[in-house]
Amino acid sequence: MSDAIACKFQTGTQWVRLPERYGNRRGVHNRLRMWAVDGT
To answer: How many CA atoms lie within 13 A of 31 on its CB side?
Structure first.
């Protein structure tokens, strides 16, 4: 998951254009939101 989040911010791509090798884009986005809320 962290690779997907890094890819998103390095490339500036939108969540819908995240490569499929990173899995479900909603799952990745939700993980980032949870990490932001708990300060990870």
So the answer is: 14
